[in-house]
């Protein structure tokens, strides 16, 4: 596997990916962006978009009328809400931050909102979800999330906490529940996701920045101060070397 940036290419050179003003690629690895989609707000779909679209499809959580929970309302979480809604799924956002309720329901169109620290809210929602897409990369408890699942429910991790999460066996046995994972997706499915996004008018919520702002943007990312993805305007701000 050769990654699009920071990896060694066939000829021994290092790949620079999207931080270049121009690049040559094997046509197998090209995704066609339909004219209906703006390039800036579509760019994050090639990472965050496919990362949530793929598990929704693979784990069968894309059937209209199903109930899917989305844990965490960041870059991945806001895309999971949009794609699940596009598939006709009922979506509940699960967050530690009550302040994100208006954003989830009003702006992103989620059907309901659960504060994961509110025991009463979590108890009332137990056994109601067909699946959950967990986008959180910080340490968090899985047991309360497993409790939200119906019989045969699926908890899918797409976030990657640094330390191992605790997973008790008994709650999985009672109700034949599944914990799985998913990371990005293949070329064919990425194109399928982009076509789906064009059809349903799905884009990422972005903040476009010049290349000179990249270091400041990195500092803001560490403070979670972005809704929800920075996109660098390479075409207008990078100095060409040709």
Notes on the protein architecture:
With 242 residues, this protein is an alpha/beta fold. It has a domain at 49-202: NAD(P)-binding Rossmann-like Domain (Rossmann fold, 3-Layer(aba) Sandwich), CATH 3.40.50.720. It contains 10 helices and 10 strands. Strands 5-4-3-6-7-8 form a 6-stranded parallel sheet. A two-stranded antiparallel sheet has the order 1-2. A two-stranded parallel sheet has the order 9-10. Strand 7 (149-157), helix 7 (170-173) and strand 8 form a beta-alpha-beta unit. Helix 2 crosses helix 3 and helix 2 (48-58) packs across helix 8 (187-200). The relative contact order is 0.17. The mean pLDDT is 94.
Give the helix/strand layout.
Layout: E1 5-8, E2 14-16, H1 39-42, H2 48-58, E3 67-71, H3 75-86, E4 90-95, H4 101-107, E5 112-115, H5 119-124, E6 129-134, H6 143-148, E7 149-157, H7 170-173, E8 178-181, H8 187-200, E9 206-209, H9 214-222, E10 229-232, H10 234-237
Parallel strand pairs: 3-4, 3-6, 4-5, 6-7, 7-8, 9-10
Antiparallel strand pairs: 1-2
How do the strands of the widest beta sheet line up side by side? 5-4-3-6-7-8
Regions with little confidence, pLDDT below 50 for 5+ residues: none
Helix content: 25-40%
Strand content: 15-25%
> Quick one: overall form?
globular
Q: Rg, please?
A: 19 Å
The CATH superfamily of the domain at 49-202 is identified as NAD(P)-binding Rossmann-like Domain
Helices and strands, in N-to-C order? EEHHEHEHEHEHEHEHEHEH
- CATH topology label of the domain at 49-202: Rossmann fold
Give the structural class: alpha/beta
Number of strands: 10
């Amino acid at each position: 596997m050769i990654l699009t940036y920071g990896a060694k290419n066939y000829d021994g050179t290092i790949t620079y990916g999207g931080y270049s003003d121009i690049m040559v690629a094997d046509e197998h690895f090209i995704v066609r962006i339909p004219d209906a989609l703006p390039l800036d707000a579509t760019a994050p779909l090639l990472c965050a978009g496919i990362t949530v679209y793929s598990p929704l499809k693979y784990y069968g959580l894309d059937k209209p009328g199903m109930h899917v929970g989305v844990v965490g309302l960041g870059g991945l979480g806001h895309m999971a809400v949009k794609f699940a809604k596009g598939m006709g799924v009922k979506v509940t956002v699960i967050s530690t931050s009550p302040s994100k309720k208006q954003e989830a329901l009003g702006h992103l169109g989620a059907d309901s909102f659960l504060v994961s620290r509110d025991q009463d809210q979590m108890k009332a929602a137990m056994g109601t979800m067909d699946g959950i897409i967990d986008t959180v990369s910080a340490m968090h408890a899985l047991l309360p999330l497993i409790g939200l699942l119906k019989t045969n429910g699926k908890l899918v991790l797409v976030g990657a906490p640094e330390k191992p999460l605790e997973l008790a066996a008994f709650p999985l046995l009672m109700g034949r529940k599944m914990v799985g994972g998913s990371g990005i997706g293949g070329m064919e499915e990425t194109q399928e996701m982009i076509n789906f996004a064009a059809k349903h008018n799905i884009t990422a919520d972005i903040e476009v920045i010049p290349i000179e702002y990249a270091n400041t943007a990195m500092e803001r990312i560490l403070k979670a101060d972005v809704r929800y993805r920075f996109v660098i305007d390479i075409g207008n701000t990078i100095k060409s070397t040709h």
